[in-house]
Amino acid sequence: MRRYQVTAMGVCLTALGAATAFSDPPTALSVVAALAGIVVSSMEILSNVRRSRKIRFQRREADDYRDLLSRYEKSGQVVRTPRDVGIRMAAETDFLQNHPVEAEVNQEPFTVHPHIEQFSLLFLSHRMRRSVIFDGLTLGLDADIPTTPNMPAIFRPVRYYHFVSTNLLSPYDVGEVGRQEPLLRGRSLIFDSRGHLRQLALSRLANVVGVSVLAFTTEGKLLLASQTLDVAGSPGLVAPSGSGALEPCDLAGGGAGSFQRTILNGALRELREECHLEQEDFEGEAEVIGYGRWISRGAMPEFCGLALLNKSADQILRKPIRPDERSFVGDVAAVRLPPVLDWSAVNPLDLLPPTYRHAASWPLAFGLTCLVEKMQDPSWDLGKKLKSRLGGGSEAA
């Protein structure tokens, strides 16, 4: 951080003074250098502490972005929950479902933009007081999904802390005590001055790739995972069967393989971890069914898949949650959806039993929207298999 450069210089000066105390320079000179370093470091630390006490992160709780999403509302692409909002990227989704896309990796490290950097460390410490956060290596999208043939999708390695301190900062306005105007308006991180959604290539955010999957058991029940209050993404809400962030280990072909396969690798890995499944429980019965931008999370890219399992709900639910997942997953349930003829993309949460609708996360609502849209295609092979499993049952499990 630039505002800590003086601190670093002071520390170096202190170390230099301590080191030269045992070398050729006069002891008095070394002692003076060390004391000067201590003074400089102490002054800078006190200055940073005083400034941090003046910074305020004001969450825009009532911001539904309705004024900026009107063009998407008209085409039915907006997906809302009681807490969050995002959009289904229809053109990109259609392209991914009909054309193979290659994946490439930009190895240039992600760096936080200077306009955000001055607040990112303070915000990170603010979030860490409320959530369990591990600074693992993830994958972000470095450019928008292509909609023309022979164009690759480009990933970039990103630390999870970068996602927290940039994407999760966007629902906040940053202010300073004594100033009337915010130092940073979170909306400006998502939309440009014309009110248009920022392209990923021009975004200042980490844009970690979110992946989730709707998994159905042999008797046609949908698995749902309740997240704990310690989760950074959707604390205390009901999520899809598996959901999380894409990681470098998910790359198909070492980064030069299929983009769709990479997305599925990540989604199915999250499913295995959160529902305690094995690879053979769903191998060969999964597809990517949707791509969206989660506006409430800095318009981060979010993908959803569908998986048909080879296990019944009883076989899955009798397994305990893995010890390393207990900080993130509170419970796993299996519910039965209404008959397919009753599905509506306008109200995707109506597919869930009433007890789950008020607590649905945005990835869950988005996934259900994509599923409803995809099931309207009578030629979809995986959809035919799912429909045969769903049957005509309408009871909640």
From TrEMBL:
Residues 206-372 form the Nudix hydrolase domain. The keyword Signal applies. Keywords: Signal. It comes from the Bacteria. PROSITE patterns: NUDIX. InterPro entries: NUDIX_hydrolase_dom. Residues 1-23 form the signal peptide. This is Nudix hydrolase domain-containing protein. It comes from Micromonospora parathelypteridis.
